[in-house]
Amino acid sequence: MAEFELIHRYFSQAGTHRKDVTLGVGDDGAVLQVRKGHTLAVGFATLAAGSHFLPDADPETLGHQAVAVSTNRLAALGAEPAWLTLALTLPEADGRWLEGFSRGLDRLCGRLGMALVGGDTTRGPLAITVQSHGLVPEHESPRRGGTRPGDLVYVTGCLGLAGLAMLAQQDEIRLSAPDRAAADSSLAWPEPRVDQGIALRGLASAAIDLSDGLASGLSRILRASDVGATLQAESLPVSPLLARHLTEVGGWMLPLSAGGDCELCFTIPPEHQVALETRFGLLEVGCTWIGTVDSTSGLRCLQSDGTDIAAGFR
Length: 314
Ligand code: ADP
Ligand code: MG
Hints:
- β1 and β2 (about 30) form a beta hairpin.
- The mean pLDDT is about 95.
- The N and C termini lie far apart (about 50 Å).
- The radius of gyration is 20 Å and the shape is globular.
- The protein has helices at about 5-10, 60-75, 95-110, 160-170, 175-190, 195-200, 215-225, 240-245, 255, 275-280; strands spanning about 20-25, 30, 40-50, 80-90, 115-125, 125-135, 150-155, 205-210, 230, 265-270, 285-295, 300.
- The protein is built from ten helices and twelve strands.
- It has about 325 residues and is an alpha+beta fold.
- The protein binds adenosine-5'-diphosphate (ADP) and magnesium ion.
- Adenosine-5'-diphosphate binds near residues 26 and 116.
């Protein structure tokens, strides 16, 4: 199949049709209308065969994941997703693979109200790069460097389930069939925290996407802001499924450090706590207060017996 035909068949109309796309797939590049009073936010993700997934991975989950990971980075900026661009490197034009991949991408874009507006397709080892573009009212994006001592640290959803699924896939832990299916599904079908990111506008002092794990993500906020933080290990939110296996997998270290979860970590000044919890109370997936920012640099995560399990992250 020629490149032109391939793009046309699988990528010419993916996602939602949006009126703010002046020129989309088919022209040299895309021309997009940014709403008045808003700024353009962009989030990126690359998935490379061998590094991020096995070459025989289900293409539909890859299409979904590429959109989910880049859009969760956009969510950390408080943006409403609008447009997607896609750089696809393929070893060959495999119709079955492209059909599955474009279905996963199209469904999640459609659900998020995003339009695929352009990209590039080249031949080479399988790699997928996605950019999620979105809109945020001027001056309302949280930034990594904005947090201060006394601010409260929160995370969305639950932590560590993707990490549990990875341990099960590597045969490091045995799960019952239903537990295994639930863990695998959370890893395969991550959900970007778009509504939660929008709820942070004007309230959060900093926010970050947690695809590399809580300790790594929060440490970046702390370094950028030149502060530290102390977390309570027992406050880390884990799903009932992970709670049942927590001792087996080494305790609170897993939710603290495992990557792969599609969640956000953010900080807010205490005077915004009530407003924030009111906004999150309206959402399907909420947030949990896990600790406090302080002026001693580095990250601490204390268990009830006083031991610090974050010692390795300084
Ligand atoms: P060029 O020769 O300028 O690289 P292409 O033939 O690669 O042009 O692309 C033609 C059109 O298809 C452009 O509008 C481009 O944005 C779009 N496009 C190419 N690859 C993809 C893709 N994988 N997904 C979405 N749009 C794509
Ligand atoms: Mg091209």
